[in-house]
Q: What sequence folds into this?
């Protein structure tokens, strides 16, 4: 969920400035929490680890609800307040994957987290500082998605392959097919593939891709490339293992 705020003055705790010291501290703290969660999961027995995943799912759902309530506290604006961004849906996908261990959910979580949600740590669409509850919601929500995907790899030993690439790609194409008409209808920018009337609703890194609708094709191509890059280490690993003597 993107966070926008007209205030942008450095040196204030109610403002977040990308690529500042606060940005670095926030990212390091998020990754440290992910590392702690992984270490804990790897040390637990099978039954205890399952209970941990159940607790993780409950926490993620509660956080998703709190985030959306806080975001729409003063009323819902259908152009910005509906939980329709990839990371909004990922906030529900992550706990569902942890609870069910369904391959489609796990595959989609992995590719969305590594290829897309990771961008929230690199170029966050956030300007609210630590004095705002939304600051904490932003980082926790994205840490849940990215962290649960890492947990699935490090603790549950999920290993994506070409079939998982296909699953995640089909889900993402389905998302594109559903969200684009909604964006056009509402004048919104969910999934960053819309053409909102206000240029402020378009993040700079999206606007740099050119005019709408041509940039939608570029975005789709970049997402496909990011998915391939996320799969590449596992293809290399599989080939190395296949060549290793048994």
A:
């Amino acid at each position: 969920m993107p966070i926008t705020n007209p205030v942008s003055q450095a040196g204030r705790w109610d403002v977040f400035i990308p690529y500042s010291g606060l940005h670095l501290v926030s990212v390091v703290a998020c990754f440290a929490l992910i590392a702690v969660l992984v270490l804990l999961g790897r040390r637990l027995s099978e039954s205890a680890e399952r209970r941990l995943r159940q607790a993780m799912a409950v926490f993620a759902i509660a956080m998703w609800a709190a985030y959306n309530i806080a975001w729409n506290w003063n009323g819902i604006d259908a152009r910005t307040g509906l939980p329709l961004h990839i990371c909004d849906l990922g906030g529900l996908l992550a706990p569902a994957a942890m609870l069910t261990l369904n391959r489609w959910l796990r595959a989609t979580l992995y590719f969305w987290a590594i290829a897309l949600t990771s961008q929230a740590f690199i170029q966050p669409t956030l300007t609210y500082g630590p004095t705002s509850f939304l600051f904490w919601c932003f980082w926790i929500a994205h840490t849940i998605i990215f962290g649960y995907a890492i947990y699935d790899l490090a603790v549950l030993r999920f290993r994506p392959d070409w079939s998982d690439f296909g699953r995640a790609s089909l889900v993402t194409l389905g998302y594109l097919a559903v969200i684009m008409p909604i964006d056009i209808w509402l004048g919104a920018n969910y999934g960053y593939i819309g053409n909102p009337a206000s240029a402020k609703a378009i993040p700079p890194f999206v606007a740099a891709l050119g005019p709408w609708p041509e940039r939608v094709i570029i975005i789709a191509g970049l997402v496909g490339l990011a998915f391939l890059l996320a799969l590449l280490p596992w293809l290399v690993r599989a080939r190395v293992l296949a060549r290793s003597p048994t």
About this structure: The chain has a mean pLDDT of 93. Residues 62 and 193 are 28 Å apart (CA to CA). The chain has one domain: 21-243.
